[in-house]
């Protein structure tokens, strides 16, 4: 039963994170579309930290050209688990409410990763839409402690 509840929560979380399509192919997200490791990309390393009660992404802003693919290299150099979710501010806000109900939810979607201390991960992302998008850690309390940033796409 617990597994079913987690599956339902994960499905709802995916919806909250900005997926508007269905299936592994052709999915659309608020912030663009999954990229491909086989295509050229610019690498942006994002370090997750938690020092003296402040939680941060370094850098906390990224400027992107519309159509550009970014290879995000994520590194959790903190002492607690963190996550990286790339979506619209509105979608992240909805997802944060879901995380309050299911704080142990794991993320491993094209636009999100959960990382334990010392772990690294990658996300390949194509920014197909102009606008300002947000990357955030939505583990309860982390966003409020400063763990969010922006991707500005022009």
From TrEMBL:
Record GO terms (molecular function): copper ion binding; electron transfer activity
Domain Blue (type 1) copper: start-end pairs: 45-153
Keyword field: Copper, Metal-binding, Signal
Residues making up the signal peptide according to the UniProt record: 1-22
Classification via Gene3D superfamilies: Cupredoxins - blue copper proteins
InterPro entries (alphabetical): BlueCu_1, Cu-binding_ET, Cupredoxin
UniProt cross-references to Pfam families, sorted A to Z: Copper-bind
Origin superkingdom: Bacteria
Protein name from the UniProt record: Copper resistance protein
Highest classification ranks of the organism: Bacteria, Pseudomonadati, Pseudomonadota, Alphaproteobacteria, Hyphomicrobiales
